[in-house]
Amino acid sequence: MIPAHSFAKRGMEMANHAFSMKQQADEPDVHQIPPLAALIFLLTCVAFFVLLAAISYTYGHLITTLCMVESSSSNAYVPIHSVEPAEDAPPAYTEDGVPKPNDAEVNIVRTQPITASLRATILHLTAKAGFWARLRGLSVYFVWNFARSIVVGMLSAASSNPFGMMIAAIIAEILLANLHMTWIHVIISEPSPKKWYQRIPTPFFKTWKKIVPAVAVWAVTSQVVTILPMLVTGTFGPMRHMQDPNYDPGMKEAYATAGQLFFAMFLTIALVVLLQIPATVAMVRVAASMLPEEDETIVPFDRTFGGLTTPEIIGGQGKIGIVEAWRSFNWECRRRLLRTVLKVAVIMMATWILFTTVALIEAHLLFGPAFGEMMKSMHGVANRGS
């Protein structure tokens, strides 16, 4: 991960280099970028990227993972006198037909799943674990992703081939399977006095062997969803000739390219729905089935998966299989997850549109005529560098 200030420094160097070349050529109307304006613009970009990252983590990772774990419905058992009746609700009756308004007998009140609503999920998390519960598990998430980037970098250092990168990413996920499972355990369970590194499952190799098949399937599908649309789209039409320096596309080719990009987008969506989501659900639920007995889940969760799992103490594996993990996630749960994913996509898209609009308006107000010159200069320097 490259720090934001490195991008800013590189961008300013490119812009200053381009402007100095124009000054040497005695070209008129060279616009200087005010340092304060550049700083304000940079801080705005950093703030929006932090906001996008927080939204992505809370809604795209944390809540969707809880949605994959939560049971389709939960039963809340409360005394009848603690429930505020509606004004037009009839009184409770005994078997003899005699009203009993003060009876403290326990009734069953069926409620919808917590993760059916994004707002309800956030309120539930903050009530259980405080305001920062929306970022719970962030430390182990950073460690896991940092370790993964190091492993991928080491394995793919000798090759820039996309397939080599894909294989390196899959191997990295398999090697770090226990760390991935630790992150899942941290976010689906109630607050624990233990540090995250104290919650890494033990014995290490034994638990790794149990979780690695599900992680391997998830890693492969993730790479297929990322690579396959680009590979397929690049085998036909104008995009097949994009690497040809002598290729001179016209308006017809521009329309065809736009059509190919839409095809790539729909292919990606189809692969996400048909491959990545089922693989992710199976992997998360397999990891959840291995949650230690002393840890309570923060959302309602059936540890037995309808009787499909058997504890190790009585001779079972102590986990659920990949196929059973997906099958136990019924259609009601699947629809709830798809609705959650759609809501998250809309939130991310709206945030990105807001960021783009604010950035463009701010750039024009802060830089004025220098904005266009800066973009042209940076584009020219980038082309010479490549």
UniProtKB/TrEMBL annotation:
Chain segments annotated as transmembrane: 36-59, 138-157, 163-190, 211-234, 254-275, 344-367
Record key words, sorted: Membrane, Transmembrane, Transmembrane helix
Domain of life, per lineage: Eukaryota
UniProt KW Cell division keyword: no
Protein name: Odorant receptor
